[in-house]
Amino acid sequence: MILKSQVEWALHCCAILSGLPEGRYLSTKALAELHGLPKEYLSKALQSLSQAGLVHTTLGPSGGYRLAKPAAEVTFLDIIEAVEGNGRTFVCNNIRANNPCRPEGYCEVGSCAIARVMWEADEAWRTKLRSVTLAELGQVLESEIPPQIWNGTFEWVLDRAG
Amino acid sequence: MILKSQVEWALHCCAILSGLPEGRYLSTKALAELHGLPKEYLSKALQSLSQAGLVHTTLGPSGGYRLAKPAAEVTFLDIIEAVEGNGRTFVCNNIRANNPCRPEGYCEVGSCAIARVMWEADEAWRTKLRSVTLAELGQVLESEIPPQIWNGTFEWVLDRAG
DNA sequence: GATAATAAGGATACCATATATCCTTATTAT
DNA sequence: ATAATAAGGATATATGGTATCCTTATTATC
């Protein structure tokens, strides 16, 4: 059970976009080049972010993407669900209903106890991811990445941002 | 990102095994019939449980499976990891290393901040699943399932247990 | 001792999905 | 008018989950 690599891509792209000055846009091409990713396929992930309303786009030359909301209002979970969907990791197929000892026509009331535990674990996962915003990520990155690389990267980015 | 259905199967099978009297064994055939599952494929999941040391097996007629430990010492996470593996849901491909602005030969120190957040979420998921044992599940099931069905099921099971 | 039922596991096939590429269309800055 | 962009449809490939079949070793029962 592994998340799509598009999730990783989307998170890194959003991290970059959150450092973009107001009103500027960054293209798929630049984001792909910056991360060493296939442009066409990365485009699908960015489209997912757009459809989820997390980023805003413009067309034409100098077009691209910017965050649609302040970085403090975009969580990891928002981004992950935009790309991966918001389904649960555990799907209950209600196999208890196959029990041959059940009376004919017996109908389950309530959810399966096993599924409930699994869904609580899913919710713990979500809760953690909902608690971290792009703004917080940006602070950590800025404190961890050597200033030379950090600044150099944003020079590179602004050079290409419309 | 969905867990294999074998995880669901293994959890339900372990729930049944945890209600089995000391020294009795239940076969793949009975477990498959009880849950309406393909016997041969369910067998793979049970083999995973066996390889993980969660269940003990015997061969020959009247052979089958029993828990290898008290139900209070077997957690949801034990069972899930036996079937699904213990890998993380987020794989970090270190795409930050593709940044063209990095100095030649620059080597990352420490893990990626994005990966760390994802792994903390994974750990929250694990922590929840590690906190629930088969013994606790058994108590919930016994309190929720109508006594007629609960008892009928274990009559059915004991009828087939070696 | 013969028989039958079982777990273990290898081989194979099928199918859904993730990954990846290519192409067309509409939009828009230059 | 031109060129660069996002959006998205179509298609191909790789991987992994699902499922079945078969063989082997073990062992309870007759």
Textual characterization of the structure:
The structure is a homodimer of 162-residue chains. With 162 residues, chain A is mostly helical. The first copy, chain A, starts with a helix and ends with a helix. In chain A, strands 1-2 form a two-stranded antiparallel sheet. The first copy, chain A, is 53% helix and 5% strand. The interface between A and B is large, with 59 and 59 residues. The structure holds a DNA duplex (30 and 30 nucleotides).
In a few lines, what is going on in this structure?
Two copies of one chain form a homodimer. By secondary structure, chain A is mainly alpha-helical. Chain A has seven helices and two strands; from the N terminus they run αααββαααα.
Task: Pick out its properties.
homodimer, elongated, two-stranded antiparallel ribbon, 2 strands, DNA-binding, 7 helices
Strand composition percent of chain A: under 5%
**Number of helices, counting only DSSP H or I runs of 4 residues or more of chain A:** 7
Rg of chain A = 21 Å
- Mass-distribution shape of chain A: elongated
Largest sheet of chain A: 2 strands, antiparallel
* Helix percent band of chain A: 40-55%
How many β-strand runs of chain A? 2
Oligomer: homodimer
What are the secondary-structure elements of chain A, in order, as H or E? HHHEEHHHH
Separation of the first and last Cα atoms of chain A: 38 Å
Unreliable sequence segments of chain A: none
Q: What is the strand arrangement across the widest sheet of chain A?
A: 1-2
Strand-pairing-aware structural class of chain A: mainly alpha
Largest interface: pair, residues per side:
A-B, 59 and 59 residues
The average pLDDT of chain A is 96
